[in-house]
Amino acid sequence: MANVQYTENLTEEQLDAMAGSETLRHQATTYGLTRNNKALIKSTNRLRDSLLPKDDPKLAVPLLLLIAQHRSLVVINAEAPYVKMVSEQFDRCHGTLLQYVEFLCSSVTPATAYAQLIPSLDDLVHLYHLEPEVAFLIYRPVMRIFKCQGRSEVCWPLDIKEPIGSDSESEDNPCKLVLDLGSPKKPIMWSDLLATAKTMLPAKAWNSLSPDLYATFWGLTLYDLYVPRTRYESEIAKQHAALKVLEELSDTSSSAITKRKKDKERIQEALDRLMSELYKHEENVASVRARLSREKDKWLSSCPDTLKINMEFLQRCIFPRCTFSMPDAVYCAMFVNTLHSLGTPFFNTVNHIDVLICKTLQPMICCCTEYEVGRLGRFLYETLKTAYYWKSDESIYERECGNMPGFAVYYRYPNSQRVTYGQFIKVHWKWSQRITKLLIACLESSEYMEIRNALIMLTKISGVFPVTRKTGINLEKRVAKIKGDEREDLKVLATGVAAALAARKPFWVTDEEFGMGYLDLKPSSSLATKSVAANTTNGSAVSVTQSDSGRVAQQVPDSGTSAKEQTSRTKLADAKHEKSDNLLHSKSDPGSTKARGGSLVNGSNVQISATSAVQAGGSNQRHVEDSAPKDTAETEVQP
After folding, report:
1. Positive or negative, the Cα torsion across 580, 582, 585, 588?
2. What Cα–Cα distance (Å) separates residue 441 from each residue in 84, 119, 180, 286, 614?
3. Which of helix, strand or coil describes residue 617?
4. Which residues pair with 145 in a beta bridge?
5. Which region ranges are annotated with the description Disordered (predicted)?
6. Strand partners, 177
7. Contacts of range 59-62, beta carbons closer than 8 Å, 24 or more positions apart
8. What percent of the residues of the chain are helix, what percent strand, and what percent coil, each to the nearest 5?
9. What is the pLDDT of residues 223-269, one digit of tens each?
10. d(CA 299, CA 317)
11. Helix pair 211-219, 254-295: axis angle to 10 deg
12. What pLDDT band is residue 33 in, cutting at 50, 70 and 90?
């Protein structure tokens, strides 16, 4: 009725098209339906007229607010005895909200009419008590019509190519942006919007975030960061092929000629529109990137607590939005990549991925609904895909990461020395081991939701994970057990995951191939003596130091050390690590583990808060198979 298609399981082509223009998105989600279908247009107009009659009262906004509020109350007021049922109710309500907001945005035109219809951002949050992510979903189209004073044709987030006046510094002032809808509403300044955004989060959150970055993140869309050129070209080629087919028709009857003429006009119109929108899209992405490049230096530079930047950014921005929809999941990964490629000061890319995987991923898997964990899996897939691309070749790493602030060793100091390629491979190994452990912990849990969510997560990331043969075999064993479960839905999911793992199996590599010579892999018992002797001769021990400035790791030559001394030193390090863990559990909450000094964890398997939280919740967590190798460099986590 609303001519709005909502599909959670989008194909790769459809998901790619969601980053495109309105025409491209429509053709990707209508499943062959004509854009100008008379029946759809008629039903859409009737629905709009029912919700927005010329005479008051209008039902559109009250219905919008009720759906948004009900989404928040589903979990609290649910009478269903099973978590699975509550999860399904939440997902249905959330999908309805997404459809309804898209319907309002497309049917209430122009954008100024939509802006006059809905409440202000402040009212959405404080009067109607909507969550920030829902409030920004509703208000995002309004943010895009804030205009720069003196340049009414330039709307946020586009960049201003030329200075407005003689004072070039005033160009960066957010107060220059204004939303003027005419009477009776008074103009809204961009500074007012930032002030409202600042009231959405606790005061301590702004020690590690800025309102400018927060508003920018929630205001942009996938359309602003990425041009799916391949998808545009594919659709344009389809239109050209359709024109060629029409020209080759030989029917010369008057009715056939008339029909061909109308079809040609329709196809030519779509073709011209796609080519024009591709050009506008490329201009938009270039302009937005120019604006972001101009503003990036002030986003995090004034934050007093730089150690918590990534944790706050994940908690306040990434997780609420990457679990909102599939396009939003891709957007979050793109936004992080944009922060990295722009060289944003104090945003450490390596630490971002480390906090994501080692501190927050397992709790998120355990508390997501079915659709949310699928979106989270898509975000993790995009993140890992980029990380594996950087790891694939040293020349790629040096070109895209070697000189970026996001790979600074001391991430309090963006201009400090960079993480080397070998160090990145070691920390990459740790991420792979950590993902394996947390997935196995969920798959072996007695909780239904944890098992199901782990299977869904594995399905979403199967294109890039697992990478090593031992990891894949370990996961296959757990999935095979679930295939014999009495619960049919788990059996179906496990069968799909098993097929995905089997398809990925030819691409698995050995641990040695993954390490590319940079890893000190755990030797087998039969080769222990030879390994110790070799290490004594070659002498390359890794010592991880942590200071207030946050050092990653140093390669320390140790060629003169005997095997006995090396073994003694290893035992001392293990005892120190165990003592540190004991202090950690006694002095801090199980849900928050902190490493002082802000160091990037390198090449180790660190026990973190997520593991403790799952154990406390009764999950049956176990370690990976003994055959899975570990990096010998253990990192001390200070309480």
Report:
1. negative
2. 20, 45, 54, 44, 9
3. coil
4. none
5. 540-639
6. 148
7. 60/104, 60/108, 60/117, 61/117, 61/118, 61/119
8. 65, 5, 35
9. 999 999 999 999 999 999 999 998 888 877 888 888 888 889 989 99
10. 14
11. 170
12. low
Q: Which of 343-357, 433-447, 515-529 has the lowest mean pLDDT?
A: 515-529
3-class DSSP assignment, residue 188: strand
Rounded Cα distance, 508 and 464, in Å: 10
Q: Which pLDDT score, from 0 to 100, does residue 523 have?
A: 59
State how far the Cα of 289 lies from the Cα of 220, in Å rounded to an integer.
11
Cα angle 5, 6, 10 (rounded to 5 degrees) comes to 105
Contact between 532 and 567 (Cβ < 8 Å): yes
Q: Are 69 and 129 in contact (CB under 8 A)?
A: yes
What is the distance between the alpha carbons of residues 266 and 35, in angstroms, rounded to a whole number?
A: 10
Residue identified by tokens 């798959």 is 443
DSSP characters for 87-137? HHHHHHHHHHHHHHHHHHHHHS-SHHHHHHHSPPHHIIIIIS---HHHHHH
Compute φ and ψ for 606, nearest 5 degrees.
-100, 135
pLDDT tens digits, 452-507: 999 999 999 999 999 999 999 999 999 999 999 889 999 999 999 999 999 999 99
- How far, in Å, CA of 375 to CA of 382, rounded? 11
Contact criterion met (CB below 8 Å) for 595 and 601? yes
Tell me the C-alpha distance between 621 and 614, whole Å: 8
How many whole angstroms separate alpha carbon 244 and alpha carbon 490? 48
- The model's confidence at residue 3, banded by pLDDT at 50, 70 and 90, is confident
pTM of the model: 0.81
* Cα 322 from Cα 329, distance rounded (Å): 4
Distance CA 471, CA 491 (A): 21
Residue 179: phi and psi, rounded to 5, are: -115, 110
pLDDT at 81: 77
The single-letter code of the amino acid at 379 is: F
d(CA 159, CA 153): 11
3-state SS, residue 622: coil
Distance of CA 3 to the CA centre of its chain: 28
Q: At 25, which helix (H) or strand (E)?
A: helix 22-29
Which residue matches tokens 């200071």? 547
Average pLDDT over residues 616-634: 38
Extract the tokens encoding 328. Answer: 């939003």
Supply the DSSP symbol for 297: G
Give the count of alpha carbons within 13 A of 343, CB side only: 12
Checking if the pLDDT of 637 tops 80, the result is no
